[in-house]
Backbone:
């Protein structure tokens, strides 16, 4: 969605929007009603809509990307361009600058000038967005790609000039203030884990200006725009997120962003624009959402104040607006009743045919670094009736504050049917978006399935599958700490680069589907739960994996050898175990374990302390520590409830570490596990390390 430039200052603007059915609609607002300017015929889904035109003139030509084709329309709706790019993949992102057209499909970037092919680049990981620095302000053509592997790739022609590391997978790029800021080189990025940042893209190196962390645990950034909504002469930053949050950031004297306004919508925000649409002289933020709603947040005062004895009356305009809304609602209700009656009649007829209604699901299964859990977000264009979650691996379902659905669990017979989890979420009326949180156990891998049933007739259901990988809690990192003690696993054998890459992609998340260009590759990972790390380097015939956690090496050894056996490939496996790494891993677990034990102890005391408080009438006789527990009782219980099986998970990790340490020595110590659990129950770090050494 975009807003066409206004004919004069603060005049109303037209909204142009492309949808899933391939229709491009342009409309304006008159007296609160949408009036269509033009509407195109159905076609392939519109993946991207951008405005363009001759440089330094109003950008009022409309360009859309659908499949591998680019089409151009004038502001009156006349088509002036139809350009088939012949790309093998569908276009995902587009940027228009004068006669230059920058396109990216999943892995391919192409640059066209006057519809003639200029440059081409094949990316090592998925491309999420593309933008080019303003040619009229920066004398060079500098396209920037936002890639899934947490990098911005700055191009010169068909080559990478340099790469910019960003804190999360970048989902959206935009020029700061719409024109690149003071230098023309400032670039905004928003990540799929909810962060925002500004980087200056100079000719030789990047300069990081600022970054907004996602401390409120909000959704990923889907769209950004720059517009002066506050009216202070400085363009503000408008942000739309996938959990329906709309945010407005203003800039202080030091050019640092400050959150000024926020508004929560019920579904993900697909695009956001600032402009004047509804009424002359009143700016507003226009947003489009996943199911097709276009909404405006206006600066026009919504209420009037009156003194004592003054009579407040609704204006004539407001009264007519309310009555037209009422009549529209009545017409819609009547139409629904008529269609429902028709459906009932046809469903009882003997020669009626039933067709399964199609619906699309917008889904996302991502790892959160903060709490080492996976977020599963399901969004449907119509209301969701229920969602059934089934898993063949042991996983914990965590509480989500935003989730109002009623959950019920079914008992599972995991030994006979490989079912470890069966849960049904029954959604409240008009819920189109459901967010779940799950936490997996490393070493246990399989499939999580979601059966989504919307409230449409006849009843139909779609199944979505998500892979839970063996090292599911690992996340890609740019670099690792070279000073840690490491254990090394080396594989050699008659395998190709593509084969070893497919094994690594099976084990670890965030690995590109296709093998990267070149003879070999190195990836770094960090365990989001324990902060241990993994370095994987592999090429044809050889793979070397280094980690400071023996359990990570053990899981890799088991899974990689199983995958090689499936392909009937003979592997030579060798490993070097560093004894110091065990103590190092236990030291990383220690603060987490100590915190959880203390939390459990405090929660156990709460009921007894509350009883004492009721009995004695006050808490002045308690020691300060106990008084603090009573004051924080609600917070402690809430935190304890949010971490189901957290202690068991840590106990499990320590037990696995103990077994894996001796497995590499060829000793089976499973008989000593009860002794280990006794030590953990009366936990003392030194006693635990001594037990590991003595065993």
Residues:
């Amino acid at each position: 969605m975009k807003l066409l430039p206004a004919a004069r200052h603060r005049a109303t603007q037209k909204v142009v929007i492309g949808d899933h059915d391939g229709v491009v609609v342009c409309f304006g607002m008159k007296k609160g009603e949408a009036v269509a300017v033009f509407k195109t015929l159905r076609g392939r889904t519109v993946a991207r809509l951008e405005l363009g035109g001759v440089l330094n003139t109003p950008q009022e030509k409309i360009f859309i990307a659908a499949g591998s084709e680019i089409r151009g329309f004038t502001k009156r709706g006349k088509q002036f361009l139809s350009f088939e790019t012949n790309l093998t993949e569908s276009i995902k992102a587009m940027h228009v600058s004068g006669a230059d057209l920058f396109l990216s499909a999943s892995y391919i970037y192409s640059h066209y000038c006057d519809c003639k092919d200029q440059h081409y680049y094949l990316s090592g990981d998925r491309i999420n967005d593309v933008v080019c620095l303003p040619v009229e302000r920066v004398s060079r053509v500098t396209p920037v790609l936002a890639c899934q592997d947490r990098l911005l790739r700055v191009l010169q022609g068909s080559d990478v000039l340099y790469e910019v590391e960003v804190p999360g997978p970048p989902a959206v790029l935009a020029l700061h203030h719409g024109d690149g800021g003071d230098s023309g080189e400032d670039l905004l990025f928003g990540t799929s884990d909810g962060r925002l940042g500004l980087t200056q893209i100079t000719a030789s190196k990047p300069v990081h200006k600022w970054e907004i962390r996602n401390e409120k645990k909000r959704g990923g950034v889907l769209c950004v725009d720059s517009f002066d909504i506050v009216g202070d002469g400085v363009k503000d930053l408008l942000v739309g997120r996938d959990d329906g949050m709309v945010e407005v950031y203003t800039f202080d004297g030091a050019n640092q962003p400050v959150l000024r306004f926020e508004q929560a919508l019920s579904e993900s925000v697909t695009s956001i624009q600032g402009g004047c649409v509804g009424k002359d002289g009143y700016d507003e933020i226009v947003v489009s959402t996943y199911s097709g709603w276009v909404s405006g947040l206006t600066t026009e005062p919504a209420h009037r104040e009156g003194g004592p004895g003054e009579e407040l009356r609704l204006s004539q305009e407001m009264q007519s607006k309310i009555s037209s809304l009422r009549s529209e609602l009545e017409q819609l209700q009547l139409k629904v009743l008529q269609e429902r009656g028709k459906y009932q009649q046809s469903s009882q007829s003997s020669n009626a045919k039933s067709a399964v209604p199609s619906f699309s699901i917008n889904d996302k299964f991502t790892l959160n670094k903060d709490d080492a859990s996976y977020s599963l977000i399901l969004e449907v264009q119509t209301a969701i009736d229920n969602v059934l979650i089934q898993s063949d691996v042991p996983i914990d379902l965590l509480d989500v504050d935003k989730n109002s659905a009623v959950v019920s669990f079914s008992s599972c017979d995991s030994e006979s049917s490989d079912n470890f989890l069966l849960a049904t979420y029954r959604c409240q009326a008009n819920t189109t978006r459901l967010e779940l949180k799950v936490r997996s156990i490393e070493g246990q891998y399989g499939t999580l399935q979601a059966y989504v049933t919307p409230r449409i007739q006849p009843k139909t259901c779609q199944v979505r599958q998500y892979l839970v990988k063996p090292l599911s809690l690992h996340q890609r990192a740019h670099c690792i700490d070279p000073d840690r003690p490491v254990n090394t696993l080396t594989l050699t054998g008659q395998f190709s680069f593509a084969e070893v890459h497919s094994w690594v992609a099976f084990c670890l998340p965030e690995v590109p589907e296709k093998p990267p260009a070149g003879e070999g590759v190195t990836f770094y990972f960090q365990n989001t739960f324990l902060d241990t790390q993994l370095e994987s380097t592999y090429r044809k015939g050889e793979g070397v994996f280094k980690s400071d956690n023996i359990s990570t090496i053990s899981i890799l050894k088991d899974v990689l050898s199983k995958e090689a056996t499936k392909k009937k490939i003979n592997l030579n496996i060798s490993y070097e175990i560093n004894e110091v790494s065990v103590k190092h891993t236990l030291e990383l677990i220690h603060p987490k374990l100590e915190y959880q034990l203390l939390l459990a102890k405090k929660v156990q005391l709460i009921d007894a302390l509350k009883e004492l408080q009721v009995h004695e009438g006050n808490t002045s006789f308690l020691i300060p520590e106990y008084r603090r527990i009573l004051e924080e009782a609600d917070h402690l219980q809430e935190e304890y409830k949010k971490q189901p099986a957290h202690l068991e998970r840590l106990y499990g990790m320590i037990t696995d570490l103990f077994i894996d340490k001796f497995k590499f020595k060829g000793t089976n110590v499973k008989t000593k596990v009860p002794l280990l659990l006794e030590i953990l129950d009366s936990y003392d770090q030194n006693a635990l390390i001594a037990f590991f050494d003595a065993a």
Remarks:
- DSSP finds ten helices and 42 strands in the chain.
